[in-house]
Write a structure and sequence with these properties.
Nucleotidyltransferase, domain 5, 3 domains, globular, 7 strands, five-stranded mixed β-sheet, about 10% strand, about 375 residues
Amino acid sequence: MEKDITYVGLDVHKQTISVGLAEPGRSGGVRSLGTIDNRPVLVGRLVKKLASAHGRLRFAYEAGPCGYGLYHQLAALKQECIVAAPALIPRRPGDRVKTDRRDALALARHDRAGELTAVWIPDAEHEAVRDLVRARYQAVVAMRRSRQHLQALLLRQGRIWNDGKSWTRAHRAWIVGLHWQHPVHQVLVSEHLAAIDQAAARRDRLMQEIEALVPQWRLAPVVGALQAMRGIAPISAITLVAAIGDITRFQTARQLMAYLGLVPSEHSSGPKVRRGAITKAGNGEARRVLVEGAWTYRSAPRLSPALQARQAMLPKDVRDIAWKAQRRLCARYRTLLAKGKPKQVVATAIAREMVGFVWAIAHAAHPAIR
């Protein structure tokens, strides 16, 4: 807290922004300034009015679906602003009244007390990559959902595929060649297949856009270096870096593990120590990619042709870290499985340790992006 700063809390919604103000000093007054429409021109007027009346300002609002547009506008107006992590804002257990006005006042008051934790703000290029990656994943989810709907229809009609893996060329040809007693079922199958094809085409188009954009990205060397690890294919590396941002901002690997929600939760009191499931805090996309990659460590260490191709142009120190990760994580997987741990628990533990090697590789590749 600094004595000459006036703190402004903003409760931001799609249509409106509620404004609260905390005057300098621990004993300074906290009051509401009402609500304005969420329009850039009105935000500019508010900033001009408050700056002329109070001098130095510091704005704070919660991270949410409205994104970082307001932050960038305030930064362009030469105003200090933080975007607070919603899960880390202090809340009184007994306070059961929540309004926009109260939220704005609480943000101003907590910021003045130094109790808000700011999230990392991506630049425009990083947001573009992140949005592309999310759009591609949404296309993948849509394709999976359409496949599930079609399989459910086939199962209800007693049409079961028993000749190998699903969604191969042979499986597709079998579906197309089915004969139906009622023509409606043929229409439904055709519609589901069309939906699957549309989602797959959208996924492929977005992947092409990602591949064209990533080489120009400032963090492209980190994306390439992470692919040295087993279980981290190109799209996995892009997803990780897009979700986390600059990995080197974490001083230790444990901080990154906690950020991704891969550390155990704990509820201990007195002599009792009780640890539970992982916290699942932070970015779910990055956590999903890591857990999926962890399953690849159930077999013995080896350099597959695809992995060798990804490592071909990488520095020796990055390759050494990746090989060390393989040897350790494969052995760790077998050890935990031998102890009787459930496979899901083992995969989660491996994902947590993967984060340590991801952190190390990112630091090794970081000089290339300076």
